[in-house]
Design a protein that fits this description.
Layout: E1 2-7, H1 12-23, E2 28-32, E3 40-44, E4 52-56, E5 59-62, E6 66-71, H2 88-107, E7 111-113, H3 125-134, E8 142-145, H4 148-157, E9 162-165, E10 175-176, H5 179-187, E11 192-196, E12 201-208, E13 211-219, E14 231-236, H6 240-252, E15 257-264, E16 270-276, H7 282-288, H8 292-301
Length: 302
């Protein structure tokens, strides 16, 4: 039995997961998106373990021999060198190749972390925060708006202790409200999210199958991901009630692996900020020694 790494071998996450799998003796098929149609291809006609195969470097690998796949697609996939990178032809090529790859990811019968249909709520932060709240997780007060009047009313309600972040699922830096935000709203912009800032420390909870691994992070600045100073990572336990809600939400979202971001107050309240469907777990694993990738590989080879 074997697993697939779908993405680019040179990408840090894909390379780490696949490399650790090989060191553990797990056969790995490297399916680089940039080599689809040149070094490898696939064929299937109907869902099911006997319905398709992958052709890679002259080897035919039936779906039935693949127990799982790890997916980490680049937001800017590469293209063959001979292809003109200007105009609509290049864009059409990128879209069609990505669509083909998604067909494969959906067709594979094993455990896939994660399929395109998983974690779709992350595409809209307002939608996801509503979903998290409906699932029973505590979410800080927030509003999505491009109205200066509504923004001022919200700020006053929280004594100006408010953060600003993007509405989309794209990675962006969280920042404190300041005059530049007010100026942006006055000049006209798409809606942004204003959210009450929660005092305390950050926690990332990775759920993988039935397992949870949580890491607290202490750093200077509003968004620890972009902080340039020292950071402190520490493995911690998750309250049982919070843990159960995370797993339930991940299951509803069809996630094999998910990353939940929390702010935890001094009095022990866990506020959920968002759920990441393609979590980067390397800094948490490297700094604490938590076996996050091992847990992922166990899920893919179960």
């Amino acid at each position: 039995m074997s697993i697939c790494i779908i993405g680019e071998r040179g990408e840090l996450m894909a390379g780490y997961v696949g490399g650790l799998a090989e060191r553990q003796g797990i056969p790995v098929h490297w399916l680089n998106e940039s080599e689809l149609g040149t070094r490898w291809s696939f064929d299937y006609r109907a869902p099911g373990p006997e319905a398709g195969f992958i052709e890679s470097d002259g080897e035919r690998v039936p779906f039935s021999s693949i127990t799982g796949a790890y997916v980490n697609l680049s937001p800017e996939p590469t293209a063959p060198e001979h292809l003109d990178r200007t105009g609509y032809v290049f864009e059409a090529f990128q879209v069609m190749r990505r669509a083909s790859l998604r067909c494969l990811i959906n067709a594979l019968p094993g455990v896939v972390a994660n399929r395109p249909c998983a974690g779709r709520s992350n595409n809209s932060k307002p939608y996801q925060m509503n979903a998290l709240a409906r699932a029973g997780l505590e979410v800080p007060g927030w509003i999505a708006t491009n109205s200066v009047k509504l923004a001022d009313r919200f700020r006053r309600a929280y004594s100006d202790d408010v953060i600003v972040k993007s509405c989309s699922g794209l990675r962006s830096e969280v920042r404190l409200w300041d005059e530049s935000t007010a100026s942006m709203l006055r000049e006209g912009t798409t809606p942004v999210i204003l959210q009450a800032r929660v005092p305390g420390f950050d926690v990332r909870v990775h759920t993988i199958g039935g397992k949870s691994l949580a890491t607290s992070i202490e750093a200077n600045g509003i968004d620890y991901r972009f902080a340039t100073g020292p950071k402190s990572y520490r493995a911690i336990d998750v309250p049982r009630s919070v843990d159960q809600l995370c797993h339930r939400f991940a299951s509803q979202e069809r996630m094999v692996i998910a990353g939940f971001d929390f702010r935890v107050t001094d009095d022990g309240r866990w506020y959920c900020l968002e759920m990441n469907p393609v979590p980067t777990f390397l800094p948490y694993e490297f700094e604490t020694g938590q076996s996050i990738c091992d847990a992922l590989l166990r899920a893919l080879t179960a």
